[in-house]
Design brief:
Blueprint lengths: L1 E8 L2 E8 L1 H16 L14 H31 L9 E6 L6 E8 L13 E6 L4 H14 L3 E3 L11 E10 L2 E2 L5 E7 L7 H7 L7 E6 L12 H9 L2 E13 L6 H6 L5 H35 L6 H21 L4 H5 L3 H28 L6 H12 L5 H10 L8 H16 L1 E6 L2 H5 L20 H6 L11
Parallel strand pairs: 5-12
Antiparallel strand pairs: 1-2, 2-4, 3-4, 6-11, 7-8, 7-9, 7-11, 10-11
Helix pairs in contact: 1-2, 3-7, 7-13, 8-10, 10-13, 11-12
């Protein structure tokens, strides 16, 4: 195989590859001979079909397979021989081939840049920190008390008010037919439009103990979007639900006093312990924000310090992904991009192209630093990230069970976990100065004073060459 470099400009490389006809013919003959051992043909025993007949019948197919495999193997050997690192899958074009002659093809690619790290201890960032104030503690304690809802029967009989709770027996009919699975006795209903259906709350306010009321709920008409399931939706819209409700008791909400009994109901030994738990929780939240701000600051410093050239194709692909999402957002909002972003489309394109370039650069840098320092992501890291993600989920245990049963689903956390581990590594080496600020400053969106925000850069992964082999960009994906 002969490889000639025909272009080397910036990160662009073009090569001409020539594979001798003898090598191709040897591969074709070898493949035909292997095929001959398995071919069955009328008049011949298995494996005894003459090679000339096998060649006549199967050579076109075998030739295509050999050419494809030869090109795949040859371009990888050429890249390895010249120690090139393709940023994306090379563009291959066959320029010359006739049976019995040499195969010639060209390959064009953008390569990953070589990055000189320098001394990471020269990186200087500020870590914002905030202390939990007594006022914040009291506010959190107040919100906790406000969330507690305890009821007792009203002293003097009266109609139910919004905010009360009523104890009822319910008999449900759907489309005129009893629905025992939805019926029940001694069911507590809180007359709160947010906790209960607004129509239900409206029709039950004013009810008294011993009173019977019928509440009819008709589902909304089906949306016109799409045709799938239209018949099912129409059927559901026609099926009105009748609730036959017997009010057995009206209960009023008890005022909540923040005292020792309240603390015990919240699982604490006493009020001091509850205050301590609340303060620790708030402090933990502050520390998470502080770490996120530190990460952002480090990424900003890295962006300022490392101004290496990045593959244009990767930037273009990242920008296309970003812009596609913007177009989708505008479509969902039924508005123009200029209106959505409060700037002209030309200005928006320029701004987001700069953001795309920054993301690609940071993604490559993070990947290089991680690879050079043997930073890896273990299964335990992914499980930990999944547990953190599940905390804000409506059904956390169900989500965790899903990840345990579908290990491949954990891979969605790998880029972010890898990035966080690299950032933690850099934080240990960089000069980090702590600055105590008020909570408002800590929680302020850094984009109010700084450049447009980035999404995670960790799609760079742990190995850019592996990404290139799969034809995947190492640039980060766009988040919302």
């Amino acid at each position: 195989m002969q490889v000639t470099e025909t272009l080397a400009e910036g990160l662009r490389r073009e090569l001409k590859v020539t594979v001798p006809a003898a090598d191709l013919e040897a591969d074709i003959e070898g493949r035909l001979d292997e095929l001959r051992k398995t071919v069955t043909m009328k008049g011949f025993r298995r494996g005894k079909v003459p090679l000339s007949i096998v060649r006549r019948q199967y050579q076109p197919r075998v030739l295509g397979e050999v050419l494809q495999q030869t090109i795949e193997t040859s371009w990888r050997e050429a890249v390895e021989e010249r120690e090139l690192r393709p940023a994306m899958q090379p563009e291959i074009e066959i320029t010359s081939y006739d049976e019995g002659k040499d195969l010639e093809f060209t390959m064009g690619m953008e390569i990953l840049p070589n990055i000189e790290f320098g001394d990471f201890s020269e990186l200087a960032v500020t870590r914002l920190k905030a202390e939990v104030s007594d006022e914040s503690e009291e506010d959190a304690l107040g919100r906790l008390a406000e969330a507690e809802k305890r009821f007792e029967p009203v002293g003097e009989p009266r109609p139910a008010r919004e905010g009360d709770e009523i104890l009822v027996d319910i008999a449900v009919e759907v489309d005129g037919k009893p629905a025992p699975e939805r019926s029940g006795t001694d069911v507590p209903l809180e007359l709160d439009a947010e906790a209960l259906m607004p129509e239900m709350t409206e029709q039950l306010v004013g009810a008294e103990a011993g009173e019977e009321r019928e509440v009819t709920i008709t589902p909304p008409a089906p949306t016109p979007e799409g045709e799938d399931g239209a018949e099912d939706q129409a059927g559901a819209a026609d099926a009105a639900t009748l609730f036959k409700i017997t009010v057995k008791e009206v209960r009023e909400r008890l005022p909540v006093t923040v005292d020792e009994a309240f603390a015990e109901r919240r699982g604490a030994k006493d009020l001091d312990e509850l205050r301590g738990v609340i303060r620790d929780q708030i402090q933990s939240e502050y520390e998470q924000v502080s770490q996120a701000r530190l990460k952002r600051s480090l990424l900003d410093v890295l962006d300022e310090r490392y101004k290496f050239e990045v593959p244009p194709g990767m930037v273009e692909r990242e920008f296309d992904a970003v812009w596609q999402q913007i177009e989708n957002d505008a479509k969902r909002a039924e508005t123009e991009i200029a209106t959505l972003l409060d700037q002209t489309e030309e200005e928006a394109r320029e701004e987001f192209r700069q953001i795309a370039e920054r993301r690609v650069r940071l993604g490559l840098l993070i990947a290089e630093i991680g690879g050079a320092n043997d930073i890896t992501v273990e299964q335990e890291d992914l499980l930990r990230a999944a547990m953190m993600s599940a905390r804000g989920h409506a059904e956390p245990q169900r989500l965790l069970d899903y990840y345990r049963n579908q290990p491949q689903a954990l891979e969605r956390f790998r880029p972010t976990v890898f990035e966080d581990k690299v950032i933690a590594f850099l934080s240990e080496l960089a000069t980090v100065s702590d600055e105590v600020v008020d909570v408002e400053t800590l929680l302020r969106d850094p984009d109010e004073d700084e450049k447009p925000s980035d999404s995670e850069t960790a799609q760079a992964g742990e190995d850019e060459s592996a990404a290139a082999d799969e034809g995947e960009s190492t640039a980060p994906d766009k988040s919302g």
